[in-house]
Amino acid sequence: MADGTIQAAGCVLWRRSPVDGELEICLVHRPKYDDWSHPKGKLKRGEDPLAGALREVEEETGFTSVPGAALPTLRYIAGGRPKEVCYWAAEATDGHFTPNREVDRVRWLPPDAARDRLTMPRDRDLVDALLSALHLA
User: Model-level pTM greater than 0.85?
Assistant: First the structure.
């Protein structure tokens, strides 16, 4: 963007547990920051935000996904610059996680545990937004 805002996108990735059918949310651990967050990343020049969000989910988690409702866009300062991250709900369809340079661990957690594990408080509201979008709140 002309104003220097960092443009990024991501998803609150979810699935039904293969064990009990309950809702689980995927969180990623980034060793560079030692934090737990939703999969997200910077958009490539000219990239559609939803396409970028799905690309980042697959790169960081190894899972393909089907996008759902748009979730709130988060705006904050990162490294002294404004950052805007567009989010969507996305249901995991297929895949397998392989640790990589950016993400060394993923966890599939029930919503309350995911909310507690997230490092940044701003990311916790996205769990509630997902539950609302899925009509589970």
Answer: yes
